[in-house]
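tokens incoming
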């Protein structure tokens, strides 16, 4: 299928891209606030985790600047020259690479959470393999745009774009299903409050992946059924959904710990430090392993 500038509705193509970029800036502001709160509340997290949060924020900063620059070029510098809609500037290709890196870091974070919680490597290994191929696909797409300098080349490589988006969706579902399965298996404990807390964690896991998975599905449908760029409006927002999901998960530990501390007084762990057990339910790189052994004293 081919497409040219005369088959493009600029109100749809450029309008969707502009709305997506503006929404992305708004989400970046939320991410910045979440990042500030994270460093303020969790100074004792591992350097690896704090470094990952910082890298994700820097990548999102570059992503936001690049998309705003592309929007300025197409709506101001090249005003009245619609041909440039099909010949994207370099600043439209950079976000593709940055998005790929963000997806890789965030999905590795959640996959590692499953590994620590379950004590098994295979889910994380499979997620990393899928994430690697997704990143390769993003690099390939960026290279095609750089070489051919026209968006319509993606219509000739539909399988590549849809495969990349499908890998993203598959990784999301794999990680969420594995995490929910681990938490559900732990509901065998006798305490109703612990089961309620685990139900909350399961709900959080599902909520954290709904928007990212939905955005992938929407992109696939729009890309396969239309020849315009409306799908790109969703694409420029997706990385912000990933990074905000990661930060919301990390910052949510404080509320969960407070709730857990209040509910631990009637639960016997064989320890005189129930507050330490509260930390066990705050799943992260350091303490997810403790949640797997709620009835064992944390040394």
């Amino acid at each position: 299928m081919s497409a040219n500038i005369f088959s493009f509705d600029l109100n749809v193509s450029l309008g969707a891209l502009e709305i997506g970029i503006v929404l992305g800036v708004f989400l970046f502001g939320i991410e910045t606030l979440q990042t500030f709160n994270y460093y303020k509340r969790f100074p004792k997290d591992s350097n690896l985790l704090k470094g990952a949060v910082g890298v994700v924020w820097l990548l999102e900063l570059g992503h936001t600047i690049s998309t705003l620059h592309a929007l300025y070029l197409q709506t101001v510098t090249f005003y009245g020259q619609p041909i440039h809609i099909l010949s994207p500037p370099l600043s439209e290709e950079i976000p593709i690479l940055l998005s790929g890196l963000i997806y890789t870091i965030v999905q590795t974070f959640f996959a590692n959470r499953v590994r620590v919680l379950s004590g098994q490597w295979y889910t994380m290994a499979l997620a990393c393999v899928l994430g690697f191929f997704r990143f390769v696909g993003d690099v390939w797409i960026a290279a095609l745009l750089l070489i051919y300098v026209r968006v319509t080349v993606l219509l000739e490589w539909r399988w590549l774009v849809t495969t990349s988006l499908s890998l993203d969706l598959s990784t999301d579902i794999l990680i969420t299903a594995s995490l929910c399965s681990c938490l559900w298996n732990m509901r065998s404990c006798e305490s109703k409050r612990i089961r309620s807390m685990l139900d909350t964690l399961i709900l959080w896991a599902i909520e954290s992946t709904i928007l990212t998975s939905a955005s992938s599905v929407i992109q696939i449908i729009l890309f396969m059924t239309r020849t315009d760029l409306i799908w790109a409006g969703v694409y420029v927002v997706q990385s912000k959904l990933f990074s905000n999901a990661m930060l919301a998960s990390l910052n949510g530990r404080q509320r969960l710990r407070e709730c857990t501390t209040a509910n631990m007084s009637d639960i016997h762990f064989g320890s005189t430090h129930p507050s330490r057990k509260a930390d066990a339910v705050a799943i992260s790189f350091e303490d997810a392993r403790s949640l797997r052994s709620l009835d064992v004293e944390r040394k």
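note: The first helix runs from residue 10 to 41.
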